Amino acid sequence: MRAMSLQQIGSLDENPEPLQLVELPVPVPAEDEILIRIAACGVCHTELDEIEGRTPPPRLPVIPGHEVIGTVEALGNAATKFTAGDRVGVGWIFHSSGATDENLSPDFRGTGRDANGGYAEYMTVHERYAYAIPAVFPDAEAAPLLCAGSVGFRALRLTKLADGQPLGLTGFGGSGHLVLQVATHLYPASAIYVFARSARERQFAVELGAAWAGDIEEKPPCLLRAIIDTTPAWRPVLASLRNLQPGGRLVINAIRKEPHDRHLLAGLSYEKHLWMEKELKTVANVTANDIEQFLTIAAEIPLRPEVRTFALAEANAALLDLRAGHLRGANVLIIN
């Protein structure tokens, strides 16, 4: 099978083509696993964190990718959840404890980091961590739902927002444009305010129903009950804390923050940023239950992910495009 393989960790500035196109044997499913023939795989910022060493794979080489859509090709002897030909998806959680808080378990393994993922023609996974994909979504549109959507849904729940309370979204890429649609559905009386770097992203947010869109440092028309930050930087954290209501909550949805502007934290003011019972919460991974619940809600709406497609061999270009920012939605690799 063809696959894009990560051979070594390093900066994309020094090596803009970190993934190599290789030929590998088709994997064989273990007794409780399924073999998936992959149709599409989304491109996520976590791949940049893996490649550049902020959340490095424990061993190399590894095949990245954790927004996987495909069909069941074969089943292990003990696998009973699916049948051959079923359309399934795989998200960031490759395997864990199965407990309610399995996203926090030391047993958590990430797809495409701790085990081979979806930048390939085939992959295997335990059947528990594969999910039926609603027919309403084409393959390319379904792919971002498996991480950008499902982890974004977890972040939205962690805000503890009540309908009618104003919500902020900082960063408006693959996750933000899906969370806005879900929030509009779940909290129809809540105005949504978007903070994004580029005019194109801000215009996209307004098209999707945002009440207001401004730059990261801009002040919104009102203080917000909750803000979800999906950026890799620290500057938006300080700006978000300033824009919260008393008792408001900032939820950071990022597996890592980059170090280039970390020095700005020296300007953290207890009075301006934290006082008045403001809260800060982080999102750690995702559970199988999160993904299953989210896919049901996504189909009910139904969500309409905006995607730009690339061929498998163009994975490096898709990653560089993501890193440059100013996306309209999400990048997706078309594989089979």
General description of the model:
The protein is α/β, with parallel strands linked by helices. It has two domains: 2-147 and 286-334, Quinone Oxidoreductase, Chain A, domain 1 (Alpha-Beta Complex), CATH 3.90.180.10; 149-282, NAD(P)-binding Rossmann-like Domain (Rossmann fold). The chain is 23% helix and 25% strand. It contains nine helices and 17 strands. Strands 3, 4, 5, 8, 9, 16 and 17 form a seven-stranded mixed sheet that branches. Strand 10, helix 4 and strand 11 (192-195) form a beta-alpha-beta unit. Helix 3 packs across helix 8 (288-300). The mean pLDDT is 97.
Q: Fraction of residues in helices?
A: 10-25%
Q: Output the CATH class name of the largest domain.
A: Alpha Beta
As a whole number of angstroms, the C-alpha radius of gyration is 19 Å
| Uncertain parts | none
List keywords for this structure.
336 residues, alpha/beta, Quinone Oxidoreductase, Chain A, domain 1, Rossmann fold, 6-stranded parallel sheet, 17 strands
What's the topology here?
Blueprint: E1 2-6, E2 19-23, E3 33-43, H1 45-51, E4 68-75, E5 87-90, E6 93-95, E7 109-110, E8 122-126, E9 131-132, H2 139-142, H3 148-158, E10 167-170, H4 176-186, E11 192-195, H5 199-207, E12 212-214, E13 224-229, H6 235-242, E14 244-252, H7 270-274, E15 279-282, H8 288-300, E16 307-311, H9 315-324, E17 330-334
Helix pairs in contact: 3-4, 3-8
